[in-house]
Amino acid sequence: MADSNHLLIPFLDNPWLWLIIAYVLGALPFAVWIGRRAGNDPRTGGSKNPGASNVARTAGMRWGLITLILDACKGGLIPSLILGGYLICNPQQIQGQDTAEMLTRISWHSGLEEWAAFAGVSSVLGHITSPFLNFKGGRGVATALGVMFALHFGLASLSVFVWLTVLMLSRTPAWSSLALSACFIIFSQATNVSDSVRIFSVCAATLIVVRHWTHLQKLYRSFAKP
């Protein structure tokens, strides 16, 4: 896995470059493209959010599911390839390099799990600040789930279960998304979860909560009423 010959594109063995590529992939506005294909731009109807749930609301469940899958895949692609050793090398395991080159690489090159987590955060950030949509975007839930499936399948599966349960009970995607954010943070504290997964969980949950801030304000006002 650490051999540079294992890389898909050896001359692009630069993790910072892949973080940028992860951002660009995450920024691809599948919701808008698919919504337009179905005849309903999600930014003009429903919650006006360019995300899978609003595509389902405005264009139908089939189109929403397609958007959900594509948004998840664009989030999980780069982290999965990094973890597989197909994009960057792990400097602690590289053989046959001189000492100076090794020290240079280690100075900026974390382990594969860390770079996969960073790429995941970059993907989610790209989704919610898409340059294709004037640096606006969706709320990052599907993309974050795609990343989590790449980083930790068990944690992602539990989060999906909670997300679906809350969605069925509340009939409100915003509350299920906030519940998923809480699950990311709570479940990531398990002893068998790596620090890199915890880093992604906290960052992704924070971004999702920020994008749902108006919903939290509404919830607060509803409880604050006498």
Number of helical runs? Answer: 11
Categorize the overall geometry. Answer: globular
**What is the terminal separation in angstroms?**
61 Å
Whole-number mean pLDDT: 87
Which residues form runs of ≥5 with pLDDT under 50?
A: none
The helix-strand sequence is: HHHHHHHHHHH
What is the share of helical residues?
Answer: 55-70%
Q: In total, how many beta strands?
A: 0
- Main sheet attributes: strand count, strand direction, barrel closure: none
The Cα radius of gyration reads 19 Å
Strand coverage percent: under 5%
What is the number of domains? 1
Structural class: mainly alpha
Structure overview:
This protein is mainly α. The protein is built from eleven helices and no strands. It has one domain (4-224). It has helices at residues 15-27, 30-37, 52-59, 61-83, 99-108, 112-128, 141-151, 153-170, 173-187, 195-211, 213-224. Helix 2 (30-37) packs antiparallel against helix 4 (61-83) and helix 4 runs antiparallel to helix 6. The N and C termini lie far apart (61 Å).
Quick structural overview:
With 226 residues, the protein is mainly alpha-helical. It is built from eleven helices and no strands.
